[in-house]
Structure formats: C-alpha cells, structure tokens
Amino acid sequence: MTDRAAPPFAVDPTALRQAVADTLGPLAKRVDLVLDEITVTVTAADYMKAALTLRDAPECRFDQLIDLCGVDYSEYRNGAWDGPRYAVVVHLLSLELNQRVRLRVFAPDDELPVVDSLMDVWPAVNWFEREAFDLYGIVFEGHLDLRRILTDYGFIGHPFRKDFPVSGEVEMRYDAERQRVIYQPVTIEPREITPRIIREDNYGNLH
Asked: Residue 38 in contact with residue 31, Cβ under 8 Å?
C-alpha cells in the first residue's frame, strides 16, 4: 500500500506565507504562520483593500469565502488582552491554487464596533455578516440588509458577547388574553449548574 499523493497545487505553508506577505506589503500589520495555518491581520482602514488584493492577486486568487465570524477578546488570556475587544475573522480558499488563508480585522471602537462589509468582494458573506451582527453587535458598513438572522427581531443584546447574561434579559411568550406575542423580563430562577461530582465531596462514593 503506497502513501497517498499530495493534492495538486499544494503549497508549502512557509512559501505561501511569504507570498501573501509580499503581495499585501504594508496592508498587512502581521502575517503569522502557526500549525501550518496562515493568519493575516489588517487594520479596519485597510480591510477592504486587503480583501480585494487577496482575491485578485495572481499569487493568491482566494476566490471563495468559506466562513466569517465575530470574536470577543474581552476575556482572552484570562483578561490579559489589552487590544481592541471585537474582531472579524474570515476564512478564504483558492480553488485554483488549493490554498487557504485566514484574514482578521479588529474594530477600532469597542463601544460601536464597525468594519466594512465584504459583500462587494464575496457576495456569499451576506448571511455570515448578519450572524456576526446579531450575535456580537458588529456593524458591517455597506451591508444592504443588516438585520438579525438567528434571534428574534425584538431581541435585546448580543448573546455571544462575553458579558451577556447566561439567562438572557427578556423572554417571549404568547398571551392568550391579548392574543399576541409579548415580551417580559426573564422569569427563570437562578439554579445550581455546577456538576454534582464537583460540588459534592463524596458523590458516587469516589475517594
């Protein structure tokens, strides 16, 4: 039995990192290679231009957006993080060159995180940006239909933020007398969620 051959056009990660760094030049704040994965970090001001370069440059040709998500760094490294709180992370794929890259941008304002929308670069980003807006409150400037996609239209807050309460803030129910859906403060009573094996010294007679 012979070893499976490497896929065609597979690129050495070190060589790809250098090619991406050379192509982006000053548009990239840093280009990291960790575990054979490349992460490009750019400023919000250079985000759109860097995205267009990664899509169109001959050495890159990242024609497909695989994923976009938000990140809340407020508790990163047990609170030791001192950079901007919110980031947007994009995963890109070049079908032609069989290579991948991760693009990361930090929103400069923690109170109102705003970055450019990439809908004009990769239209498939539409629902991904709506999800990041819904869950993290990140605003994508230039998005033509930026509204919630997972939570209800009347939902208050952004549930993937680290400071969002575990039980939420409001709940929705159908009121039979009013014959409509109403919102009210959460009525879930606090409960113990620590596993018994941790909170009870002799649980299961384990010694």
From this structure: yes
Shortest CA distance to 144 belongs to which of 155, 130, 158, 131? 130
Q: What is the pLDDT of residue 20?
A: 97
Q: What is the dihedral of CA 23, 27, 30, 35, to 10 degrees?
A: -50
Q: What is the pLDDT of residues 103-122, one digit of tens each?
A: 999 999 999 999 999 999 99
Q: How far apart are CA 91 and CA 169, in angstroms?
A: 32
Q: What is the CATH number of the domain that holds 53?
A: 3.30.460.80
Instruction: Give the amino acid at 51.
Output: A
Does residue 41 form part of some domain?
Answer: yes
The span from the first CA to the last CA of the chain, in angstroms, equals 49
Structure tokens at 76: 């990163």
Residue 86 bridge partners (DSSP): 72
Domain range enclosing 101: 13-151
- Counted domains in the chain: 1
pTM score, two decimals? 0.80
Rounded to the nearest 5°, which phi and psi values hold at 45?
A: -65, -30
What does the alpha-carbon distance between residue 124 and residue 35 come to, in Å, rounded to a whole number? 27
Whether 65 maps to a domain, the answer reads yes
